[in-house]
Amino acid sequence: MSRPAIMINELDAERLDRLLEQPDYASLPVADALNDELDRAQMCAPEAMPTNVVTMNSTVRFRELKSGEERVRTLVYPAQMTDSATQLSVLAPVGAALLGLRVGDSIHWQLPGGTTTDLEVLELLYQPEASGDFRL
Q1: In this model, does residue 107 exceed pLDDT 60?
Q2: Which CATH architecture has domain 7-131?
């Protein structure tokens, strides 16, 4: 399974670049993978973001393909993380994998410890840009 094309809101990309420059985050195992994703992403103005793309603060329903387990999480920055049952940090491996994917996309992603996962985006329950929240 190859990595699908991804699209990232320019404001999200700027915030993530600044976050990944901080020593506490730059040394995390997922930092390099997230930087790679930012480098390969198509950038888009918040106002032009398609409504089917996972952006920061989106609530997404996704499935882990090997187990079939479905989850619903809101993709957040680490400082916003308050509840792992409803939120997913963009600096968690699965969070980094979901950023920029479209509904229907699947991705094969490396996890810590050498394991991998295959994820599929099933539905966007909320996307800030689709709701007119361009600076969230």
Answers
A1: yes
A2: Roll (3.10)
